[in-house]
């Protein structure tokens, strides 16, 4: 038996009859940049997230950068970023002229909360990036309370969490502004790079749209200096088809996660990240925490099961952040990153596959 980590060719085979015609029609109409299909996808995704505005952009990193820029924060101000995330969450801060301040989540939580924000906020802090890591929503009420107390803006990094809910509201609608990635391997993935910004604030949406498209409101009417980061027609058409399947795919991910959680809780050598009853994860990834990560990974590999590590090095310990002081404050994240192992999860899998993975894990521990 084989369990792949991700199987995009298999997903395409299942969707081919829906995808091929929309690609054909974008090409026939030469609707490559902008146009009705981009507008249609932006409207469907805004509706899906329960927000007023969605702006399609070139990728998730651009979405973060443009979201930050559209907040008009004081130049050089500090932005809080969780110590365990994909590097883009931090890069976007520096690239927009702000200072990265890492924050370590406490306990067995994968995400930061209001207490973590309070611990790290200073007079120079202007915003916090709430990363819904692995698909698990951050505890947004406490983050909003802390943000209000310190006058901070809140940006959701929802790149791993399309469709996840917090207090019955979808991520992307829970803060000032949110950034999504549609990188092919994400829960909602394009056939290339793509991303989106969502917000309920129309002035912010207007600024984001200007920044993403050369600052223009009309063909040669450039209100500000912007940049080029647009969602293209082909990707929008593909995403619009795939969005209709997202809830079914989330259902499959949740079934697999349920099998994993109930069976792995019986295995003493493995810990799981805490989950809260106030939210429903999108289970982009399913990490386990175990000191014997490498042994388990090669055991699973020998049984045909692919695994991953998210992420092998916590952000403060990357060479890119040699310039920041105070790595000593992030030892818990760094030590944990050496114990992380992501099990396969996705719409290519069955409950049977998940049980097979658990059988192999249980066998490893005898
Ligand atoms: C994927 C990802 C991004 C960046 O998205 P791209 O589309 O690859 O630029 C940002 N943040 C997180 C947490 C991600 O997982």
Task: Please sum up the structure shown.
The protein is α/β, with parallel strands linked by helices. The protein contains 11 helices and 15 strands.
Fold and architecture overview:
The protein contains 11 helices and 15 strands. It has 366 residues and is an alpha/beta fold. The strands form 4 sheets. A 7-stranded mixed beta sheet has the order 1-9-8-5-4-2-3, sandwiched between helices. Helix 2 runs parallel beside helix 8 (233-264), helix 3 crosses helix 4 and helix 8 packs across helix 11. The radius of gyration is 20 Å and the shape is globular. It starts with 7 loop residues before the first helix and ends with a helix.
The N- to C-terminal Cα distance equals 20 Å
User: What is the helix content?
Assistant: 25-40%
Low-confidence stretches: none
Main sheet: strand order: 1-9-8-5-4-2-3
The overall strand count is 15
H/E element order = HHEHEHEHEHEEEEEHEEHEEEHHEH
Helix-strand category = alpha/beta
Question: Compute the gyration radius: what is it?
Answer: 20 Å
Bound compounds, please? pyridoxal-5'-phosphate
Main beta-sheet strand count, sense and barrel state: 7 strands, mixed
What percent of residues are in strands? 15-25%
Characteristic key phrases:
366 residues, seven-stranded mixed beta sheet, three-stranded antiparallel beta sheet, 16% strand
Write the layout of secondary structure elements.
Elements: H1 8-28, H2 36-49, E1 53-57, H3 60-70, E2 78-82, H4 88-95, E3 99-103, H5 114-120, E4 125-131, H6 140-150, E5 153-157, E6 165-166, E7 169-170, E8 177-181, E9 195-199, H7 202-212, E10 216-218, E11 221-222, H8 233-264, E12 271-272, E13 279-280, E14 286-289, H9 293-302, H10 331-337, E15 340-343, H11 351-364
Parallel strand pairs: 2-3, 2-4, 4-5, 5-8
Antiparallel strand pairs: 1-9, 6-7, 6-13, 8-9, 10-11, 12-14, 14-15
The chain binds pyridoxal-5'-phosphate.
Pyridoxal-5'-phosphate is lined by residues 59-61, 85-86, 88-89, 131, 157, 159-160, 181, 183, 193, 195.
